[in-house]
Amino acid sequence: MTKIRVHEYAKKVDKPSKEIIDQLSKLNIEVANHMATLEDNAVTKLDGIYKKPAAGRTQARQQHQAQNRPSGQGQSRPQNSGQGSSRPAGQGQSRPQNSGQGQSRPAGQGQSRPQSSGQGQSRPAGAKGSNFTPKAAKPTAGPGQRNNRPGGGGGRGGQNRNRKGRQQQPVNPLPPMPKREKELPAKITFSESLTVAELAKKLGREPSEIIKKLFMLGVMATINQELDKDAIELICAEYEVEVEEEILVDKTDLEVYFEPEDETLQEERPPVVTIMGHVDHGKTTLLDSIRNTKVTAGEAGGITQHIGAYQVVENGKKITFLDTPGHAAFTTMRARGAKVTDLAIIVVAADDGVMPQTVEAINHAKAAEVPIIIAVNKMDKPSANPDRVMQELTEHGLVPEAWGGETIFVPISALKGEGIDALLEMILLVSEVGELKANPARRAIGTVIEAELDKGRGSVATLLVQDGTLHVGDPIVVGNTFGRVRAMVNDLGRRVKDAGPSTPVEITGLNDVPQAGDRFVVFEDEKTARQVGETRATSALQVQRSEKTRVTLDNLFDQLKQGEMKELNLIVKADVQGAVEAMAASLMKIDVEGVNVKIIHTGAGAITESDISLAAASNAIVIGFNVRPDVNAKRAAEAEGVDIRLHRIIYKVIEEIEFAMKGLLDPEFEEKIIGQAEVRSTFKVSKVGTIAGSYVVEGKITRDSGVRVIREGIVVFEGELDTLKRFKDDAKEVAKGYECGITIKNFNDIKEGDVIEAFVMEEIERK
Ligand SMILES: Nc1nc2c(ncn2[C@@H]2O[C@H](COP(=O)(O)OP(=O)(O)OP(=O)(O)O)[C@@H](O)[C@H]2O)c(=O)[nH]1
């Protein structure tokens, strides 16, 4: 053990060495000079005089060391002082400390080494104390904080150790320190879900703690378990941490671009009007009349072009009309989620009154929450009776203003062009109330009014710009198509470069033909537009594929009728190759007008899973002649919806297919397999025949069921069950998991390993 020298002690007590030597002399302790070492008892005595604490020696040593190194260097301190002997550590020592040793010594000067305290705490040991700077010494982690990282990180570890040392000094033995936990975040965010581990990380807690909390809440979770929103919220509530779900924006969902935006950027836009009404009440005449009086008059040289919508100007304000009369277009668009119309004009012939389609139109407009203006048409006719129209409409909740209601009625004659101006004025009035606005500065969004494939120009689509401005050259996604706006033509057949809100324009430049009612969105660049368009096209195709119904003999005729099928694909499996060929040849001879029978695959042996996947991929029906599907094939067929037809007589196969193709399939009965039993042993009993000692492996076997004997996937016999016994008693049915004795009528060649399949004929309802 290193002893303290006189000058060291002097330094420690802040006295000159000489005074210490004198004092020692007074105590009858002789020392040669200031370099002399002091015995323990001498130190004790000196301590008594200089009132130094018991740990004086160590402390003296520490102070001495402190003076001999740059300030801030990891200050050594005694650990577990008071336990047994205490001594200063040799400088430069580097070894693990174990407080359990009962020895305490200051750490070497800030040197890096792993420390292991009796508390089992493991913390990063400090790096070289010389790296310390006062700034770096700022505490970051509290004592007692679990920190299992390996040492070696900068000055902080050393500083931590110092802190620990200072705090530990008076404590003996060290009680388990209260765990100081990381501060909880004020708020966490997540999207969709988080695993326990991810949530723990976000909260700065151990996953085990989260698991414990979940357990207390009645949720058993593992570290990698995904937690749903509710569970995350519950846990966060426990910690009083705010939680917010981030909604991931799906770039390919065009609807998100239709969210309303900052109103301050918006300007007034023209209303978009649809004309609806009963047949022959004058919708087309009205649309033409408006167009002719308003468009051609002002636009010299303009050749009106039917692009599905047009604009007129009334009192210096534009009005857009959708040029597709009737509510079919209106409903189609609405069904596709597009709200295009701001106002509906319902035309009612004054000589005819409210008719069924008038009511339908009213209901459509109401459902779409679109304001209605009633145009009472054919006022020029002597038989016109507008009062009757008004009367009838009140029954549908449309009360004219004249009668104290709110509905605007405008008497017109579409044919003579009378009342058109009044109607347009009313349209403007109603739209003013509606405060229709858009931001012409943003990238355009809108809806497809019409689209077709033009021989010369390719895909041509009429778009109604609903917000923003569409420019030639804009990268665009339209429904599931994309492209760049190559050329734009307005309703007057003129080429335009830009189209603002509520403007209909016909564009070219799309890679495919979109559908009426599809949304369009202009993107920042062509690459994004392409990506979004392609992704949308792919997912649309997948949806279409998954929706495609598989052909079955039951729906075959319907599919043929709808012209969806020109060919009937078949896969033929039979017990022997000869039968396969015979079957295939007979099937090929089936002659039903307009349909070809195409055999895409044949084979001898049981129907396998690969037969089913081929059938699924090529929309084929599988025909099994004297063969059965194996377990996997059965499962696959059920999952894929593949129709398997099992037969034992060739002409029945042919008949069934032929009838199905002609839509004459007998709809009444269908075979249903109710169970299977495995033959485990056989007994020959005279007079009775062969008894099959069997075990029911699936479903059940009933007394009245038909049976088939299957040997290695091939049907060797089909007939009726004769007796069914449990032990010695006759049984009505034997369920899965039970043994039974079975005899089959007129069949004694039963063998061990055979499978007896039981089936019943069930009456079914054909679709
Ligand atoms: N006298 C008179 N006849 C009109 C008026 N408006 C339309 N008609 C006539 O009514 C008939 C039907 O007019 P359309 O405009 O084709 O009616 P619609 O509602 O478009 O009919 P559908 O397209 O079949 O639904 C035509 O013969 C028009 O000439 C009108 O104001 N006065």
UniProtKB/TrEMBL annotation:
Location(s), subcellular: Cytoplasm
Keyword Repeat applies: no
Biased composition (Low complexity): 106-127
InterPro entries, per the entry: EF-G-like_DII, IF2_II, IF2_N, P-loop_NTPase, Small_GTP-bd, T_Tr_GTP-bd_dom, TF_IF2_bacterial-like, TIF_IF2
Record keyword Cytoplasm present: yes
Record-level GO cellular component terms: cytosol
Annotated GTP binding sites: 277-284, 323-327, 377-380
Polar residues bias locations: 59-104
Annotated spans, Disordered: 52-185
GO MF term set: GTP binding; GTPase activity; translation initiation factor activity
Keywords: Cytoplasm, GTP-binding, Initiation factor, Nucleotide-binding, Protein biosynthesis
Region annotation (G-domain) ranges: 271-419
UniProt-listed Pfam families: EF-G_D2, GTP_EFTU, IF-2, IF2_N
Record-annotated membrane-spanning stretches: none
Main location: cytoplasm
Function: One of the essential components for the initiation of protein synthesis. Protects formylmethionyl-tRNA from spontaneous hydrolysis and promotes its binding to the 30S ribosomal subunits. Also involved in the hydrolysis of GTP during the formation of the 70S ribosomal complex.
Similarity comment text for this entry: Belongs to the TRAFAC class translation factor GTPase superfamily. Classic translation factor GTPase family. IF-2 subfamily.
NCBIfam families, per the entry: IF-2, small_GTP
Protein name: Translation initiation factor IF-2
Species for this entry: Planococcus glaciei
Gene name, Swiss-Prot/TrEMBL: infB
